[in-house]
Design goal:
58% helix; elongated; 4 helices; 100 residues; mainly alpha
Length: 100
């Protein structure tokens, strides 16, 4: 499986795929809405990796209540689900571009 893994940053960082809408960034937060209209991170409680890391750290804090931890877990799962679906959609778009 590891041999078949590909980093989806590479075609954007190498500028193999480049659109003005990327605003010079290869970040998924820039690339995704340009290639998959309507799909972005703006409506999520946790919308980027740094915030996800901080939220995960908060889960480890014994002072945080169960209710707060449950919400953090839910928000992290939503964020991770969005990241996963974003990768699936980007692969679909890239495959289509190669086939065209």
């Amino acid at each position: 499986i590891n041999k078949r893994m590909r980093d989806l940053l590479v075609p954007f960082r190498n500028r193999d795929v480049l659109l003005p809408a990327f605003n010079g960034s290869a970040s998924i937060k820039s690339v995704l809405p340009a290639l998959v209209p309507g799909m972005n991170y703006t409506d999520l409680e946790i919308g980027e990796g740094g915030a996800a890391s901080l939220a995960y750290e908060k889960l480890l804090d014994p002072k945080v209540t169960k209710v707060e931890k449950d919400k953090i877990r839910k928000d992290l799962l939503t964020y991770c689900g969005q990241d996963t679906m974003a990768m699936v959609k980007l692969v679909e778009v890239l495959r289509k571009k190669v086939q065209d």
